[in-house]
């Protein structure tokens, strides 16, 4: 029995076990499998492990998307999540090449995926408060927002949650070192039903304090001299 003799339901079930590249490769073999690839039911969940994956054409983005995860766990993620003054020329060049990749993708999500229920971002060092604000405004059904090691996220994102996160039930801002205890308390007061978690966030040294950076530099020089 040839694979194309299977009915649509069976083919969708088969495709659901494949990664994005395998789905795309299979879809290129015949028109019937291409139609399965293009079925919105196949694309309710998307997981990405690198900004480069966001630029490929091996997935579909549309109203069927409910769960989105962009988690950059490679060793190189570190270059996007350290202070600019600590980066060498290679690290700065690498960051610049990916600076707008995730943000542009999320803006596309805002325009095409109004039914999004869950968004997880980890190691996305260039994502800004404004980008998260747009997601909250355009995806009113969002119930879970998990941000980890996103260094440009500040209290403005927390404020956006209080204003536009009416459906939100879970908020994680772990290792987001530029938010404050005051911002967290505001969320707790304004949104008592939200399960808030902020591991190693408000107590970390923020990027936005140049005087503290200078102190760290001086301390580092002293250690080197010793």
UniProtKB/TrEMBL annotation:
The keyword Cell membrane does not apply. One of its GO terms (cellular component) is cytoplasm. InterPro entries: F-box-like_dom_sf, F-box_LRR-repeat, Leu-rich_rpt_Cys-con_subtyp, LRR_dom_sf. Keywords: Ubl conjugation pathway. The keyword Transferase does not apply. This is FXL22 protein. It comes from Struthidea cinerea.
């Amino acid at each position: 029995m040839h694979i194309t003799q299977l009915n649509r339901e069976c083919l969708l079930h088969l495709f659901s076990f494949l990664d994005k590249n395998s789905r795309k490769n299979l879809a290129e073999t015949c028109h019937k499998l291409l139609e399965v690839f293009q079925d919105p039911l196949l694309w309710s969940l998307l997981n990405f492990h690198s900004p480069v994956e966001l630029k490929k054409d091996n997935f579909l983005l549309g109203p069927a998307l409910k769960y989105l995860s962009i988690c950059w766990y490679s060793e190189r993620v570190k270059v996007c999540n350290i202070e600019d003054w600590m980066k060498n020329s290679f690290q700065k060049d690498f960051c610049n090449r990916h600076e707008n990749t995730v943000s542009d993708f999320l803006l596309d999500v805002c325009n095409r995926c109004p039914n999004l229920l869950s968004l997880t971002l980890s190691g996305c060092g260039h994502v800004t408060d404004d980008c998260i604000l747009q997601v909250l405004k355009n995806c009113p059904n969002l119930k879970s927002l998990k941000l980890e090691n996103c260094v440009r996220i500040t209290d403005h994102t927390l404020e956006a949650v209080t204003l536009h996160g009416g459906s939100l039930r879970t908020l994680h801002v772990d290792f987001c070192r530029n938010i404050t205890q005051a911002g967290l308390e505001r969320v707790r007061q304004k949104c008592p039903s939200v399960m808030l978690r902020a591991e190693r966030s408000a107590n970390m040294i923020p990027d936005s304090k140049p005087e503290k950076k200078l102190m760290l530099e001086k301390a580092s020089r002293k250690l080197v001299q010793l």
